[in-house]
C-alpha cells in the first residue's frame, strides 16, 4: 500500500517535489548537472521513482483532475506571451527557415516511423506524435498532444529520454557549427541579415520588463485560465472525434490555443509581465509529474530503438532545413536558431541565437514562441500522418 494515498497529500507532495527540483537547480554546485539533465527529466522521473518505491500510488482521482483542468489553464496562461505582431516582423527569410524546420520535423517523423516501424511497439505513433509536439516548440506541446491522443505513461517517459538525449545532442552540434558560420554564409551567398533592426528594437524597448505580481493579478490569472479552460472543455464535448488523433480533449486543446492566442492581442496579455507563464508552467509540471507517477520504470528498455529513430528524425529535419536555408540565402544564424526554436523552443533558442550573434537572444525568443504556436497544430498533423503510416 502506498505511503501517500490522499489526493490532497499527493498534490502537496508533488508541488514540494517540483519546488525542491527548482531550488536545487538554482544552486551553483548543481549547474552542470542540470545543464545535462534538464528539469523536465527530474519532474517526470522522480514521481515515477516515488511510485516504484511505494510512496505515491499508480492511480488516483487527482491525476485525472489535473489533466482535465490544469492543462487547458496552463495553455491559456502560456500563450498570453505570444507576440504575434512582432513575429510577423521577422521577415520572409526568418519565417521561411522556421517553417522549413517545422516541415523537416513533420516529414522526419513520418519517414523514421516508416523505416523503424517493424521494431517498434504498435502504439509507437502516439509517442512519436507527442515528441513531434516537443520538437516543434517545446515540452508544453509534447504534454498537450500526448494527453490529447492518449499516449501511455510508460511510452511518454521513453519519449522524454529521446527528447533529452537526441534533442540536446543536436543542440551541441548546432553550437559547434557556430565556429564555421562565416564560411557557411559565404557558401550560401548570404548578403544581409534581416533581423538586426528587429533585435535592436526589442532590446531598446522596455515593454518586456517584468512587474511584481499582485493579489488581484493572481486571481485574474486563475479566472482567465480556469474560465477559458472550462469553456473549451465543454465545447470539446460537443465536437465529433476526427479519427484517433483529434478526440474530445484534442478539440479542447485546439480551442484553448485559439482563445489563448486571441487574448494575446488584448490587454489581458499584460498578465505575462506579472508571471502568467510561471503559473502556467507550474500547472504543466504538475501534469507531467502525475504522468510520471503513473508510469512503469521498466518501460525504459524500449528507449534504445527510439533513440535510433530520433537520430534519423533529426537528420531529415537538418537536411530539409539546410537545403531551404541555402535556397533562401539565409544566414547560418537563422538556420541554427530556426532549428533550435523548433526542437528546443523558447528555452534554448535564445541561447543558440546568442552563441551565433551577440544581442540576438530576443530574436531567438520570438522564433521560439513561433514554434510554440506552430507545435500544437503541426504536432496533431504529424500524429495523424504517423497513425496512417502505422497501418501500412
Mean pLDDT: 85
Largest sheet: none
Order of helices and strands: HHHHHHHHHHHHHHHHHH
Specify the number of helices: 18
Structural class: mainly alpha
Spatial gap, N to C terminus? 44 Å
Enumerate the spans where pLDDT stays under 50 for 5 or more consecutive residues. Answer: none
In angstroms, what is the radius of gyration?
20 Å
Given the C-alpha coordinates, what overall shape results?
globular
Q: Could you give the count of β-strands? A: 0
Q: What percentage of amino acids are in beta strands?
A: under 5%
Proportion in helices: over 70%
How many structural domains are formed by the residues?
A: 1
Notes on the protein architecture:
This protein has 392 residues and is mainly α. The protein has one domain. Helices cover 73% and strands 0% of the residues. It contains 18 helices and no strands. The chain has helices at 7-25, 31-36, 39-52, 61-79, 84-88, 92-116, 124-134, 139-149, 153-177, 181-187, 196-204, 215-237, 248-263, 276-293, 303-328, 332-343, 349-356, 361-391. It is globular, with a radius of gyration of 20 Å. The termini are far apart. The model has no long low-confidence stretch (mean pLDDT 85).
Amino acid at each position: 500500500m502506498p505511503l501517500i494515498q490522499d489526493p490532497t497529500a499527493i498534490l502537496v507532495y508533488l508541488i514540494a517535489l517540483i519546488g525542491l527540483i527548482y531550488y536545487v537547480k538554482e544552486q551553483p554546485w548543481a549547474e552542470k548537472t542540470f545543464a545535462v539533465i534538464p528539469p523536465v527529466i527530474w519532474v517526470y522521473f522522480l514521481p515515477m521513482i516515488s511510485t516504484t518505491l511505494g510512496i505515491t500510488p499508480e492511480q488516483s482521482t487527482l491525476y485525472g483532475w489535473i489533466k482535465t483542468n490544469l492543462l487547458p489553464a496552463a495553455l491559456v496562461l502560456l500563450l498570453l506571451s505570444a507576440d504575434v505582431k512582432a513575429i510577423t516582423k521577422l521577415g520572409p527569410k526568418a519565417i521561411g527557415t522556421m517553417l522549413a524546420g517545422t516541415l523537416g520535423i513533420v516529414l522526419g517523423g513520418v519517414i523514421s516511423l516508416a523505416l523503424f516501424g517493424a521494431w517498434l511497439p504498435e502504439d509507437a505513433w502516439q509517442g512519436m506524435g507527442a515528441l513531434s509536439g516537443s520538437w516543434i516548440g517545446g515540452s508544453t506541446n509534447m504534454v498537450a498532444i500526448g494527453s490529447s491522443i492518449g499516449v501511455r505513461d510508460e511510452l511518454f517517459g521513453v519519449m522524454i529520454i529521446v527528447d533529452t538525449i537526441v534533442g540536446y545532442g543536436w543542440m551541441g552540434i548546432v553550437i559547434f557549427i557556430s565556429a564555421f558560420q562565416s564560411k557557411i554564409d559565404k557558401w550560401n551567398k548570404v548578403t544581409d541579415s534581416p533581423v538586426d533592426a528587429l533585435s535592436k528594437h526589442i532590446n531598446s524597448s522596455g515593454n518586456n520588463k517584468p512587474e511584481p505580481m499582485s493579489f488581484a493579478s493572481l486571481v485574474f490569472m486563475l479566472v482567465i485560465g480556469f474560465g477559458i479552460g472550462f469553456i473549451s472543455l465543454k465545447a470539446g464535448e460537443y465536437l465529433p472525434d476526427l479519427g484517433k488523433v483529434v478526440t474530445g480533449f484534442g478539440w479542447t486543446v485546439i480551442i484553448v490555443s485559439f482563445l489563448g492566442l486571441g487574448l494575446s492581442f488584448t490587454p489581458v496579455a499584460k498578465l505575462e509581465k506579472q508571471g502568467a507563464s510561471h503559473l502556467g508552467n507550474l500547472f504543466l509540471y504538475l501534469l507531467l509529474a502525475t504522468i510520471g507517477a503513473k508510469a512503469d520504470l521498466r518501460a525504459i528498455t524500449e528507449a534504445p530503438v527510439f533513440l535510433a529513430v530520433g537520430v534519423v528524425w533529426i537528420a531529415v529535419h537538418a537536411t530539409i532545413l539546410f537545403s531551404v536555408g541555402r535556397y533562401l540565402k539565409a544566414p547560418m544564424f537563422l538556420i541554427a536558431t530556426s532549428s533550435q526554436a523548433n526542437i528546443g523552443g523558447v528555452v534554448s533558442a535564445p541561447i543558440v541565437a546568442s552563441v551565433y550573434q551577440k544581442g540576438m537572444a530576443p530574436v531567438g525568443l520570438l522564433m521560439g514562441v513561433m514554434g510554440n504556436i506552430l507545435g500544437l497544430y503541426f504536432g496533431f498533423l504529424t500524429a495523424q500522418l504517423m497513425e496512417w503510416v502505422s497501418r501500412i
